[in-house]
Fold:
Amino acid sequence: MRLSCSSVMRLFSVTLLLSALPLLVGCTGSSKLVPVKGKVTIGGKAPPAGSTGAVVFYPNKEKGNTAGGTSTGVIADGGEYKLTTNGKEGAPPGWYKVTVNVTPGGEMDSSKASTTKTGSLVAEKFRDSSKTDLAIEVVSGAPEGAYDLKVTP
Structure:
């Protein structure tokens, strides 16, 4: 069987595309992290000085976010937080369910924001990923304040 020059070129192009496909797929998706920072307020006020807290973003699979794992942030004085994912700053784009927990002092592990703690300054529904109504979409280029979290005591 003899192939024409155009057939050989098409076959070469298809082969090249198929061999590069794994590289193209690997460059897209959840490996990209978007910077996420915001401010937590409890009843319209910043958490009290000396309190400790954390936020956890859980990928919302019901809204198409298939990223694995969670993104967490420690709440600093004034209520400000920044998310990290696997030790890197930011979170993969997509929709998240968000939990918040703030306690009136002591140390808190950011991975335990969903754990009910005695003396929490935040209503229980915001501390439980199955009950929270906080939902955030992480996107590139979000405006200032897009990731602010308002919770109640």
Q: What stands out?
A: The radius of gyration is 22 Å. The chain has one domain: 37-151. Strands lie at 37-42, 52-59, 71-75, 80-82, 84-85, 88-89, 94-103, 135-138, 149-151. The chain has one helix and nine strands.
